[in-house]
Records
---
Amino acid sequence: MIGARVFVLLALCWSGAAQALCSVVTTTPAAFGSVSSIAVRTTSQPSSTLNGGLSCTGSLLSLLTSNDHFWATVTSTQSGLLGPTGDVIGYTIYANNSTSYPLTRGTAYDFARNGIIDALGLLGGTVPRTVPLYFGTTLGSNVAAGVYSETLSIFWNWNYCSGIGIGGICLGRDIASGTTTLTVNLTVSNDCTITAPNIAFGSAPVVSAFTAVTGQTINLACTKGSAYTVGLSDGQNPLSVGGRRQMISGSNYLAYDIFKSAGTTRWGSVGAARRASTDAEVNPGNGLGTGSQIFNYNAKIYTDQTTPPAGTYLDNVVLDVGF
């Protein structure tokens, strides 16, 4: 009888034993990539890393129980992604690829809860697997262009049944902890929103009867702190001599031009013909991000040309912003 009992105990330990060991590893950085300042301010940007610093190998024969835990505590000396001018982009860390499971900085989050570890299959095989993390930026960040980054400290702490025998008996627990760091970065690029109404000269029987279009404005809301210039192209049909812009109707042309502010200096696209952000009539200087800078201009049809045949004359002028 004694021998039989010893044999049964040995069978219990041998037939069902399975080891699942975890360790803290070097993370894979999370990069949001290059995003325009406007997109950063108006749309939550997603990112992720497939390796948040916890790696496990092995297999369990049952799902995690209420006694099993995988805690992660995220801390940092910063409050978000810090940029070159001191601006900060806030973001939230999530335990899965939805916004259902946000992590709070400084508070332990249990990945064993809500089935996250089970869904990952972290303990479901012999190949090492790592815990992914997900990120989403906070709306409303009005920031300058540049590289934004933060280094997170992640303290992993776990306690779970690492071996299950016949009958579901736990044969041993894996209890350990460790700290790793994770770098998160995002590059903000310069951008603008542009409001530029069309120019309409109306109609007239002869070129001398057209009146100048005055009080026209172009509104630009460009990246916070950006110095830029604004250019207007020569249109689709510029004169090869004299450089005047021309509207076209069929094979006929009507020369006109666009001038800076209320003056007679032509607004062009090259060199000094462009306008600098410091030259804006409203809010001159570098870009504001959320506020508009307004550039005034006027336009006129040249009266020293022969009146062309009647028709609807059109041209397209490209506005470009250079940083």
---
Amino acid sequence: MTNAHAAGAHMQAELASQPDTWERAFGMRAEQQLLPAAGARVAVVGCGTSWFMAQSYAFLRESGGFGVTDAFAASENFVNRGYDAVVALTRSGTTSEVLELISGLDSSVHTIGVIGDPESPLVNMVDDAVLLPFADEKSVVQTRFATTALALFRASLGEDLTGAIADARTALADVDPTLAAAEQYSFLGRGWTVGLAHEAALKMRESSQSWTESYPSMEYRHGPIAIAAPGRITWQFGAAPEGLRGQVEATGARFVEHAIDPMADLARLHQVALDRSLAAGLDPDQPRNLTRAVILDA
């Protein structure tokens, strides 16, 4: 027991609520209109999980014909080069690198914050704040805020999330317990799901201190497949490149690919991460060396 609650209790409740929070974000038409209009040149920034969701949004927006869209880690960026708008994604609204980036932008750049905590300082620093307090979390390990923000982004681009929501309900109700028992995990994605792969690897590292790696699917064959072996899992988000399954299975590793919306598959991974953490006697609500937000001393 930690902090008078069962280990992982917050993470369990929060990851299980994802279909409901996605449904709510899907219906937030007014808030979606605050996001950059078609044709705008946009940079999307964040740290950790938020950076990976920024990558997914950037790919979907640009590939969908809505305009040039780049994703940056807030600590490593080139945002002062002609962007019309900067979207900052942050659960806490207090992350030092994000606040520093926003405060340093030229006043001509329109700023939009997608934020979990409505009382955070970022709310008053941006031109428009999209608030998602219903998706905020108590667990340090982030699950529903990230995917709810991505649901909002996808809906703003005209996607119908009905299928994704249904897939998530099904996936969370039926998680294969053997998925939590591998020695090592490699997560792969293509296009917008590369960000999901990076996020899946981070989730497993944060929650259970597991050995995880992540790559674009086609890059996996350029070296990283060397670690594939019996007792290890290669997990593909979305459709795999032709022939990849066979190459992985030839090593003796297990190839995991679910024919569902990739965001729903990430929700499934969240449950696997929790299960693995608890099996190791850990508490993902209070993971080793981590805090809810990174706030650096001046």
